[in-house]
Structures are given as C-alpha cells and as structure tokens.
Amino acid sequence: MDEAENNQNTKYSSIKQNSKALLKLVNTYVRVHLIKDCAYVGFVHSIDPVTNSIILSVPQDNGYQTIIVPGHAVLDITQEELLDHIKPPQKKESHADTAEEILKRKAKLISWFKTNLLPVTELDDKIIIGNVTLLRPYKISDISADNPIVAMQIKNVIESMPENFQPK
C-alpha cells in the first residue's frame, strides 16, 4: 500500500482485502473510477468490508449528495488534492436525551393518551396502550405492535399532541 500511497493512485482490486488500507481512505477526498468510463469525486464516508461498496459524500452547490458505489463497479481510486472552496462534510452530532427528558416525555404521553380516552398502563419502563407497546425513549420510532394499522393510529395520536401540551 505504501507504493500505492506514493502514487496516490490505487488499484482498488489490490486493496480490497486490506482493511487497514481501506480504513485509510475514510474521510479522504478521492476520485473513484468506475466501469463504463464513469467517475465520482467526493469524500469517502465509509467502505463496506464485505461488498467493498463505497459511500461517497459528493460536494454540491448547497451541501453534499450521498452516493453509494457498488464495490464490483470500482476500478481504482485516486486521491485528489482538496481545493480551497471545498470543505469536508461535517459529522452530525446526535443528541442523547437525559433521563429527566425521557421521564417528562413518558408522563406527557401517558397524560395525552388518557386525554384521548385510550386504555393506557405502565409496565416497568414501557407504556402499554391496548396491544401496542411504546418503548423507551418513547418516540414514534419506538412503537411496537403486531398490527401495523393499530400502530399507525397510535403514531397519529402521538403526532397530534400539541408541543405545549401540559400533563395533568
């Protein structure tokens, strides 16, 4: 890989099996040469070690476009010089809810379900509404139900809750 790094032109087939070489490509600005005389230029977000597919963040006018390049279509990778007007994409920071925020959301939802005359009970850290269970941290993506129609109805009830709703 050292020789390939010096050339800054890397035959992808020669580094596919070298996980350290693949890892060195992450967050670099590259040109990915594909079959059928096609190429993409962008920042390597990640590389799938199983399929060797590449996720690229390609600079656009107002941000970045994410492109998934299948591993079998890649011929080689050339590291490109980063121009001044191109800035690397910023990683989004995820916000973890505090225990207090989660408890407030739980109390607010239980009160909202009762306001809507739904049969709601608590079991440990779960909210149970009939045959639907709402798991921690009590967001729409945490709805668990056997019946998708019922799950959709509970989702709609949660979405209809006003931001300024105060539990009783």
**What share of the residues lie within helices?**
25-40%
Which overall shape is indicated by the principal axes computed on the Cα atoms? elongated
Report the span from N to C terminus: 65 Å
CATH architecture of the largest domain: Roll
Number of strands: 10
Q: Give the biggest beta sheet.
A: 6 strands, antiparallel
State the secondary-structure class.
alpha+beta
CATH fold description of the largest domain: SH3 type barrels
Overall description:
Helix content is 27%, strand content 32%. It is of the alpha+beta class and 168 residues long. It folds into 2 domains: 2-79, SH3 type barrels (Roll), CATH 2.30.30.100; 99-159. Strands 1-6-2-3-4-5 form a 6-stranded antiparallel β-sheet. A hairpin with a 2-residue loop joins strand 7 (120-123) and strand 8 (126-129). It starts with a helix and ends in a 9-residue tail after the last helix. The model is unreliable at 1-7 (pLDDT under 50).
Task: List the keywords.
168 residues, alpha+beta, SH3 type barrels, 6-stranded antiparallel beta sheet, 4-stranded antiparallel beta sheet
Task: Please give the structural blueprint.
Elements: H1 2-7, E1 9-11, H2 12-15, H3 19-25, E2 29-34, E3 38-47, E4 54-60, E5 63-69, E6 74-79, H4 99-115, E7 120-123, E8 126-129, E9 132-134, E10 143-145, H5 148-159
Antiparallel strand pairs: 1-6, 2-3, 2-6, 3-4, 4-5, 7-8, 8-9, 9-10
